[in-house]
Amino acid sequence: MDNNGDLTEALKAIKNITDNTSWFRDHPHRWAQASLPLGYALACVEVVSKMSEKAGAIYQKIIEAWGKPGVKAIFDDVFSEVPDSEKEKVKKALLHPETELLPDPNKPFKDLEDMFTSLEINEDLLKADDKTEQLSPEDQQDIEEMEALARLILEFIIIGFNRESDIQKGRYRVLPTEKAPWVIWAVAIRAGFEHYNITLEKLRALYKLRKYKGKTIDFHKVLTEEPMSRWHRRIVASGKAAKLKLKNDRVIIEAARHWYKCRVVYPSINKYCYDPSNDCLMLDSKNVETQIRPCDDAVGYIRRLPKKKISS
Length: 312
Fold this sequence. Notes:
By secondary structure, the chain is mainly α. The chain contains 16 helices and 4 strands. Helix content is 59%, strand content 4%. A hairpin with a 2-residue loop joins strand 2 and strand 3. The radius of gyration is 22 Å and the shape is globular.
């Protein structure tokens, strides 16, 4: 930002992020503990893509890149490596939550998380064995399109999740490496879903209008703590016993907003909290630091950069 006026306008605009295109609403949901880093990473991707002009332009290119036939071909190959037994677990959890949730509400989340965190891209898919074969022109194009998507994702994270002053110095606090898998997957998943027009409502519709013992149950309402009589109380009690975390969407997106302001827009948390141009109530820096810590962990934020060695 060039001046305080531009900064103030940007901060005011952040308040309007949650809209019909947002993945986050003002509702509580029960999260498996291991799913929360992805939730916070997705919220940060949403905030960055909407608040950073440069990063937003790159994000649109990522969405478009998902439409390349080579990208689809590569991902088809990747998911063909997933065992059928794992695919069946996910399918069962999605299509029949009534049988999967009641015995153990954490089970479908565990199955999805296990598949997500264990999925690795086989490097052999991205290169040919020189001793046995050469890439065909079609395969070469597929790989080039996949590599272009990967480069855009890395560029989006570098540009959108780091202060401009740090970038100019070649010092990065958020790097798309193996130490920050959640933010990489969050960008890929969110942009891919946007390309295929898979909205939050469509995902939540999977949990609606399921028959169980002759009764129609809206499992989205069950999971969001909306009253459902005995069925609601039973599953909520089971969810608590399974240590599912009840988190309000507003809490996660608000943490992401504060994270973006503290870690990207402003030079420090204190500068953000005590800036009179914020047009908001005075914020307590300790509370904000606690609030944004899950975002730090989700995106792999490096709080203390190593000092540069002085060349002799």
